[in-house]
Amino acid sequence: MEADAPLDYALFQLSPPTPALVVSGNGRTEKIASGSVKPFVAHLRAAEEQASAQPPPPAIRLQLERRAPWFSKGTLERFVRFVSTPEVLEMANTFDLEMSQLEGARKIYAQGGAGDATSCGPD
């Protein structure tokens, strides 16, 4: 498939053995990346919404209502390269860590307080 080929859809396969990003256009399907989809989901609201569904889906499908020249194999390959840079991966990991810490704090406060406030934080 050529890089400028318009896509019918992109599919993040979440199920084992190895998660993958598959693109399909003009009757052809190709895998363009494999590994964790977490960094990708952090940058795509539609993917994040699908991933957070209960129960989680076996795949996240990105598809436009009608074809657009910018939704191509090359666009997705550039997105994969950008999201796979060490700086972006570190930022996504930091974001996940901070969100889990905030969620933990929210649960503590929702249960009726933080306990002994003097034991929280540095001395």
List its salient traits.
alpha+beta; 18% strand; 123 residues
SSE arrangement:
Elements: E1 9-13, E2 20-25, E3 28-34, H1 38-41, H2 45-51, E4 59-62, H3 73-83, H4 86-110
Antiparallel strand pairs: 1-2, 1-4, 2-3
Structure report:
There is one protein chain. This protein has 123 residues and is α+β, with helices and mostly antiparallel strands. The protein has four helices and four strands. The chain has helices spanning 38-41, 45-51, 73-83, 86-110; strands spanning 9-13, 20-25, 28-34, 59-62. It has a four-stranded antiparallel β-sheet. A hairpin with a 2-residue loop joins β2 and β3 (28-34). The termini are far apart. The model has no long low-confidence stretch (mean pLDDT 79).
Name the overall outline.
elongated
- Distance N to C terminus: 60 Å
Proportion in helices: 25-40%
Radius of gyration: 19 Å
Chain-averaged pLDDT:
79
What's the count of strands?
4
Q: Indicate how many domains the architecture comprises.
A: 1
What strand line-up does the widest sheet have? 3-2-1-4
Total helices: the number is 4
Structural class: alpha+beta
Indicate the proportion of strand residues: 15-25%
Largest sheet: 4 strands, antiparallel
SSE sequence, one letter per element: EEEHHEHH
Low-confidence stretches: none
